[in-house]
Specification:
Elements (H helix, E strand, L loop, with lengths): L1 H33 L1 H4 L3 E7 L5 H14 L3 E7 L6 H11 L5 E4 L3 H6 L17 H4 L12 E2 L3 E8 H6 L9 H13 L3 E4 L5 H14 L4 H10 L8 H15 L10 H9 L3 E7 L3 H7 L5 E4 L12 E4 L3 E4 L6 H13 L1 H10 L16 H11 L3 E2 L10 H13 L5 H15 L1
Parallel strand pairs: 1-2, 1-3, 6-7, 9-11
Antiparallel strand pairs: 3-10, 4-10, 5-7, 5-8, 5-9
């Protein structure tokens, strides 16, 4: 009897343990299933970008994205214009505040940041990127690390009414014609150029690019500068570059060396100057100040050759994703939404006035400047953006040299030697 009692008691204990384990497992599973963190968690993406021109409409686009994706919030921070985006981005990473999505120019910049970037080769939008849009962010293994922001171009933007007022009937496409137009404008009491020499990127990057981009083979020339087989000193295109530099300085607004980006654009937009060395990214800012202005692009010509009539067109920057982001999936989702959803495509074309770098997005809502860039591109009258291939930091040193020349501290032979020394020291 005692033995039967002990056996029954043992059986009850076993059943109790099994029931307890079953109850525990069921409770755990139910908790996982109902845990709000798996269904209702709100993810916050940090987006760090440099295009001040689109900061306001970009925020509106993000608001619409969040409305369509209630579990994802996007915190936008913009550093650009007169601020140094590259330095600010490095400071972010150094402090541990690494953004989920940020900008990268490609080429040398891709090499500098590649260890932090997610491979985007297999993203749905990648197959729609135009060939020119893939070049800056494709590494030697063929992997794509960035999504192009858009296509942009720059040159001398000109006010058509002021040109007509000065009796200029044909837009100048050579350096001789540019000099002649500048003189006619001045004689008519119109300041020819709005020169922003207070900004390093305006002169040490965009303006100086012409000397590199007008070479017969710009990439081969830059490679030659790296291996020593080519020089800046003595190069014919850089000798010619003096002509456009002197012309802009001679016919510029007062105190160009202290003129920043906002002042430069505002002078032109308010009708105080006839030409502006900038790109189509300024269109929204200009039309906000002067909605009725009729304008177009002139080349930054350095000679009287037919090849002078070309505009520098390229990818200004790219969206990249931090490969170590805790929200990698959501970051990639946002990039795809931006170029595949009707909402995203509407903002890119109509609100940002971008020229799309994708074959599945039709350009629409382009203003005078965007249309001018498109026409030059279709006519195959373009030259490349080369500064992404330059040694890191060279653009700022180039700018400092140009600033010294603009105020008469050094002669042009010294300018070219300093350009050469900068390249050799930083390559």
């Amino acid at each position: 009897m005692k033995r039967l009692f002990l056996m029954a008691l043992s059986l009850l204990l076993v059943v109790g343990i099994i029931a307890g384990c079953s109850s525990k497992n069921t409770s755990s599973n139910d908790k996982t299933k109902d845990d709000p963190k798996t269904e209702d968690e709100v993810v916050t993406l940090n987006l760090f970008q440099f295009k001040v021109e689109i900061a306001e409409p970009l925020q509106k686009m993000l608001d619409e994205f969040e409305a369509e994706h209630p579990n994802i919030k996007v915190k936008l921070e913009t550093v650009g214009g007169g601020a140094d985006y590259g330095a600010a981005l490095k400071a972010k990473f150094a402090s541990g505040e690494k953004p989920d999505i940020f900008n990268n120019g490609g080429f040398k910049e891709l090499e500098l940041w590649k260890e932090h970037l997610a491979d985007l080769s297999n993203e749905p939008w990648a197959k729609h990127v135009l060939p020119i849009g893939k070049v800056p962010m494709t590494d030697t293994d063929g992997k794509l690390y960035g999504m192009p922001v858009n296509l942009e171009g720059y040159g001398f933007i000109y006010n058509k009414k002021l040109f007509a007022d000065a009796g200029i009937t044909e837009p100048p496409t050579t350096i001789s014609e540019l000099k002649d137009a500048a003189a006619k404008l001045k004689d008519a009491g119109i300041t020819p150029f709005s020169a922003g020499y207070g900004e390093w990127w305006v002169i040490g990057q965009h303006l100086l690019n012409i000397g590199f981009a007008q070479q017969d083979d710009p990439i081969a020339y830059i490679e030659g500068l790296y291996d020593g087989s080519e020089k800046i000193v003595g190069n014919e295109k850089f000798k010619q570059f003096k002509e456009v530099l002197d012309t802009e300085i001679k016919f510029a607004n007062e105190n160009p060396i202290t003129t920043d980006y906002n002042t430069q654009v505002t002078l032109f937009a308010s009708g105080k100057t006839a030409m502006l060395q900038q790109g189509n990214w300024t269109e929204n800012m200009i039309t906000e100040i002067n909605p009725d202005m009729e304008m177009g692009f002139l080349p930054i010509s350095i000679s009287d050759d037919d090849s002078a009539d070309r505009l520098p067109v390229g990818v200004p920057n790219n969206w990249v994703v931090n490969k170590n982001s805790e929200h990698l999936k959501e970051a990639k989702l946002f990039l795809d939404w931006m170029v595949s959803s009707e909402t995203g495509k509407r903002y890119l074309t109509e609100e940002f006035a971008f020229i799309p770098a994708f074959d599945n997005i039709e350009p629409s809502g382009l203003g005078d400047l965007g249309q001018s860039i498109l026409e030059y591109s279709k006519a195959d009258k373009t030259i490349p953006w080369t500064w992404f291939r330059w040694p890191d930091g060279a653009n700022k040193e180039f700018a400092a040299t140009i600033q010294e020349y603009a105020v008469g501290k050094i002669d042009y032979d010294t300018v070219l030697q300093r350009f050469q020394d900068t390249w050799d020291n930083l390559k």
